[in-house]
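ARCHIVE CARD
Drawer: 12
Card no.: 0347
Subject: one protein chain, sequence and derived structure
Cross-reference: see card 0346
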Amino acid sequence: MQKAKNLKEYRTECAESLNNDYLRTALDKFAVAYRASRKNAFAEFDVDQLIQDVADMKDGALLHLDELYEQFKKTAEAAGVTVHLAKDADEANDIICRIARETNSKKVVKSKSMTAEETLLNHALEDQDIEVTETDLGEWIIQLRKEGPSHMVMPAIHLSRYQVKDLFSEVTGAAQEEDIEKLVKVARRELRQKFVEADMGITGANWAIAETGTIGLVTNEGNARLVSTLPRVHVAMMGIDKLVPTIDDALKTLKVLTRNATAQAITSYVTWITGANQCEGATGNSKEVHFVLLDNGRREMAKDPLFSQVFRCVRCGACANVCPVYRLVGGHKMGHIYIGAIGLILTYFFHGPDNAKNLVQNCINCEACKDICAGGIDLPRLIKAVHARIQDEQGHPLPGILLGKILRNRKLFHTLLRTAKWAQKPVAGNDGYMRHLPMVFFKEHDFKALPTIAEKPFRDLFEEINPLISNPRFRVGLFSGCVQDFVYPEQMVATVKLLAENDVQMSFPMKQSCCGLPVQMMGEMKASRDVALQNVRAFENEKVDYIITLCASCASHLKHNYPVLLENDTGIADKVSAFTEKVIDFSSFVHDVLKVEKEDFDGDGKKTAFHAPCHLCRGLGVHEAPRNLIETAGMEYLSVEDEEVCCGFGGTYSAKFPELSEQLLNSKLSSVEGTGAEQLLTDCPGCIMQLRGGFKKKGSDVKVIHTVEALAERLKKK
């Protein structure tokens, strides 16, 4: 058994992928084209409603999984099919190998099936001296290369036509050309004889319809139809989560599956198979058909109140399509058998914690996967939960334990930050940056300049700068988090100025601390819960209309994760609800609540780009407010390519995967510079740290500031 890789070895493999120019180019082109194509494919639909329909249908089916299986078995067998239920991967493979022996099947043709990949079926058949041929083009290519798929829908997306040309030349013994159409003809010619000679055809299934005993297949090449009809034996293998009550339920999924997977209104082939005699084998003899349904932990997972939502997955692969990390390293590094965000979760349950523990740490928590998911699965939350479970089972790394202990003790945490102001003196410059990094800690982080701790935190400034508003329009509590309190207090000072000019009375509870997201990202869920409780209690006596934060990550975490972290603390449920309902991000408050107007500002027309923090545009669903504020304040807004794509910071992610963080950062910097912008605004101090540090290292003149600073700078005094 192969030894599990440690994080350092895994990081090295990921870094190697960065040197694969073709992989990077192919995935970049696809990612950009996919977003536009998907938008067009869903143009006439209420996407949110479609996704909700799928989620409701899948959740409902899951509640009746055993009944649906019994109904499916009864109706399918009445139509002449033999139905098997396998408790795990080994039993599923044994069943199919036994069918092959009993039917004297020596040659097998297969159509793409992720469930067969899950059980490593090909290896089991080959161990029985059975010849197995994948017939979908991409699957055949990676089979010849002895690789696994790098995408659930496009398994060979990582390969160029030149690599395929060389492969086909080797296989056929004749020199081939790199022309794609000619390469497809080569594959067709080589595979045609395999279809004719095959004794058994093996497919997967997208649905198993209980009402009629029907299975449904969605393909673009049509090989599944040949695989299921030409050989005298057909075996369809599927997870029991593919069970749905009716064909109408299957069609609900079909609407989103094809559009989300490849941005097609419909794929080339949608095939429905009912019964054993629907089509005779190539010899004219009666067809023998078997449906093998796989449990492999699915029924147990279906009972889990958190992880049961995994079964809403329609296997569209879209979570990989939009993942910025997948875009850098590809599916062989961003998955085990299953690829992308869903793969990070399924790997833990189907293939164990050793295969999952590095993968779940390579999630940057940008929420792009959740935003695109056809089943509405909260993928980032599940990934973090898997990370925490693995650490609970295998032990918590020391850095996470230490940070958790520090954040739990607010006074200790703030004392350490104050002490750091003095400790940084030997390496601090006069420009707010570290003059040089202490390499023992930051030897891989020299791709960006790091800021120094501020001379005075915001909490020490607040009382002296906060004016008393005689007749306030609103009363708000300011939540600063740790970075704006101790590193960028000028952002909070600008907030006080802007809100005071708009007759807003402010308070700043001194017992507030870090939001706790960093320790949650490190899998320290107990520490994250304790910090959440600490902050809720800090604000519980504040008589405020809103709780404003200038950090989109803090806002999203406070609003969406605190109720989950504190859901078992029944005694404070009302306080948690009152807290989270008042949380609002800065741009939304100024734009939607204060409703500032152009007359409030002295605009200067400065060319201004915007970077949308992940937790602003996806976590909070805020898109237009900051862009509108740029124009309201009299600046010229310039659109950035990939404006809503992650900058690569991701809090502790940047420290753990600096090589990948650097690539995401450089891509963002190039996009911003390409606009000719003089300044770049954003609504997250972490993003500012990443982007400002990157521009500083490059020697660029682009100024990176928080949106509030740009507004306060142009504010007319009343």
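Annotation on reverse: Residues 232 and 281 are 4 Å apart (CA to CA). The chain has four domains: 1-41+317-393, 64-299, 439-591, 593-713.
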